[in-house]
Please model this.
Amino acid sequence: MIIGELLLTGKFNAQRTVALVGSSVKKPRYFKTVIGSEIATMVYDNGVDKDGNDRIISEMCCPESK
Model:
């Protein structure tokens, strides 16, 4: 999908949508961000305790390609 857009338009779309969800998240929601953005800012500024027993899972590959 990303490669197809690049080939069709000649422009690389670095925008991504990130979901912040889970039982320890006080305000679950989606964020629009770009590749390379700092995830910690989104997570810890939105109600997740820094000392909690949480995991941040990041998928490097696009889910459409699986």
Observations:
- Strands lie at 15-20, 29-34.
- The first helix runs from residue 2 to 9.
- Residues 61-66 have pLDDT under 50 and may be disordered.
- Helices lie at 2-9, 39-44.
